[in-house]
Amino acid sequence: MWQFFHKLGSPKWFFGIATRLMPWLLAGGVLLLMAGIVWGLAFAPKDYLQGNSYRIIFIHVPTAFIAQSIYIMMAVAAVVTLVWRMKLADVFVKAVAPVGLVLTFLALFTGAVWGKPTWGTWWIWDARLTSMLILLFLYGGVIALDRAINDEKSAARAVAILVLVGVVNIPIIKYSVEWWNTLHQPATFKLTEKPSMPADMWVPLLLSVLGLYLLFGWLACLRMQTEILFREQRTRWVKDYVMAGRG
Amino acid sequence: MAFDSFSAFLVMEGHGPYVWACYGVFFVLMIAMMVWSVHRRKAAIESCRRGYEFQADRSEQQAARGSAASFTRVNVSQD
Q: Where are its TM segments located (chain B) (predicted)?
């Protein structure tokens, strides 16, 4: 167990594992996402209440769901950074924050466009929407803070603390649809209950969520490798890797 | 198939513009982020490589200069 933990902290070991995983993550992610989207767009039945506009759900739910889980993963990595000073945890936070920013933006954008035909408005200061907007600002803040501090170690600590402070927003997003009387509809999936929609709707949704998860995994590996190359460029193994790739 | 024809699929009973705008923005941003990330990794490798080559050149030059200096005889008068 402890050996595994130490290995996990080794950038060189991670780099090798990531290289082997990435083709599978990319292929699986694209395949599942496309299957979910094509099924959802063309084959799933129309919603009896919202008509065809509900087909936005097949990208809205995956982006919103993964945007939040990226933040939770970043918070776990922030704890690891602060307690064990593991380099790789900080590399993870740095590498995935921009991905989280883009996915949060996509969730807000698709939500706004879905809101227009369904609620009659693009935006409203509803609890769910506002807390998602705060998540967008948190991602922006993490990226900005990291860029503002030159020293790698102080940047890692400052960013980890900011991430941990912001994590309070995650349960607010999750329960906002239950605590407050909001315009936003309640959660589509619950772990404890059977989905209330027919299988023709929730199976493609599940496929696109899984697909986007795998794509995020690919992006995370790729971007962490980039960060590792920059940080470890004085080491022997990076030099060997870079020079071998040329010949 | 939930639609009778391809044009019905595009129009989506009037909701077409909303649905297609969402999917359009989603694909553009996702593909842009993926391409950008691949490009960044390539740029990182390239910048490392240039750094190593620069170092190698410098140490070669230094070695050349160093050896030239070591073979210079200094004639000190013995008188």
A: 18-39
